Amino acid sequence: MNERLKKEIIRLTAQLIAFRSTADNPSELAACAYFIAKWFAGLPVRVLRFHSRGVPSIVVLPQGVTKPRVFLNGHFDVVAGETSQFRMRRAAGRLIGRGTIDMKAQVAVMMVLMRELTLRGQRDVGLMLVGDEELGGINGTKYLLSRGQRSAFVIAGEPSDLRIASEAKGILNLELTARGRSAHTARPYQGINAIDLLAQALVRISRALPIPSKRRNASVTTCVATTIQGGMASNQVPVQARSTLNIRYAPADRPQALEKNIAKLAGRGIAVKRLSVDPAAHCDPANPYLLKLARSITTVTRRPAAVVRKAAGSDIRHFTQAGIPGVVFGPSGGGSAHSAKEWIGVSSLVTFYEVLEKFVTSL
C-alpha cells in the first residue's frame, strides 16, 4: 500500500469514529450511513440504501452487477463509549478510539479498496455495510439477505488477528422462570422461595457447563447467566424469579438438544423459554475462495495462513443460514474490542488491505 492510501484510510477512520453510531442513537447511525453513501458519489458504482425498523444499511456494487462473486461485509454501529473515545488519536503505531478494531477502521479499508478496485475495472466484489451487527444483525445483514442480496462467498472484516476464522459458535438465548409460593418472611416455612429455586438451578447448570480455559473456549459450548430478577418486597418470600442464559454453542452441538438438557438440569418448578437462536457458522476448509484467501495471506505476510475457530459470533452466521459460505478475516487489536482502550495496529490494518487486494485480484 502506498503512503497516500494509508493516510487516507487513517483519516477516513477518524471521520467514521466521530459518529456516535450506537443503537440508542439512531440519528447518528443514519448520519454515518449517509456519509458512507455520499463518499461513493461520482464513482462508477451503484449505492443501494436500505432501512429496516430504523436500521440503515448500505450495499455498494459495480455498475451493472447484481450478484458479485464476493461480498466484503462490515458494520458501522458500535457499542457505547465515553465521549472522548469518539475522537480518534494515534500513539505508538496504534489508532485508538471507539470502533477502531470493531470495526470502523476495517470499514474504511473496505471503502477505499472498493473504490480502487472499481476504478481499475474490477467487477467481482461488492460491499455490504450494516448498522446493527452489535445487536445481532437481524435488521442489517439478515434483512439484506431476505431482500435478495447474494454472492458466492463473503468475508466479514471482524478482528481475527489476520487469521481465517472458518467456524464460529451459534448463539442460543434462554429464559428461566422459577415459580414458588408467596409468604411473609416472618413465616418462611409457609412459602417456597423462587429465588432459591432459581439459584440452585443455575448452580447445577454451571457445574454441567463450566467455564473453559482460554485455549479451549473457541471449541466448546459455554453458558453464561446474564440477567437475574426476582422478588417484590423485602418482607415477602418471592413467588417468582427469572434469569436469562446466553449459550454459545459449538458447531457440532444442536440448540434443541442443549435446550432440552438445560430444562432437565433446571429441574421441577423451572420453566425454560427459548428467546432466540442463531446458527453456528461453518465454512468448508476446502472451499476454493477460502484457499485463495489463505494463499493471499501467505503471499503478503510470507507466513502460512492460520485457519481457526472463533468464539465470538458475527454476521457470518446469517450467510451460513442462507447457504452462502464465508469466513471472518480481519486485523489485530489485541483483544481490545468494546474496551475503554480499544485500538487497532496500523501495520495490521495495512496488511489487511494488502491481503484483501491480493485476494480480489486472484479471483
TrEMBL record:
Keywords: Hydrolase, Metal-binding, Zinc. One of its GO terms (biological process) is L-arginine biosynthetic process. One of its GO terms (molecular function) is acetylornithine deacetylase activity. Residues 167-266 form the Peptidase M20 dimerisation domain. InterPro entries: ArgE/DapE_CS (IPR001261), Bact_exopeptidase_dim_dom (IPR036264), Peptidase_M20 (IPR002933), Peptidase_M20_dimer (IPR011650), Peptidase_M20A (IPR050072). Its cofactor is Zn(2+). Pfam families: M20_dimer, Peptidase_M20. PROSITE patterns: ARGE_DAPE_CPG2_2. PANTHER family: ACETYLORNITHINE DEACETYLASE, N-ACETYL-L-CITRULLINE DEACETYLASE. This is Peptidase M20 dimerisation domain-containing protein. It comes from Candidatus Doudnabacteria bacterium RIFCSPHIGHO2_12_FULL_48_16.
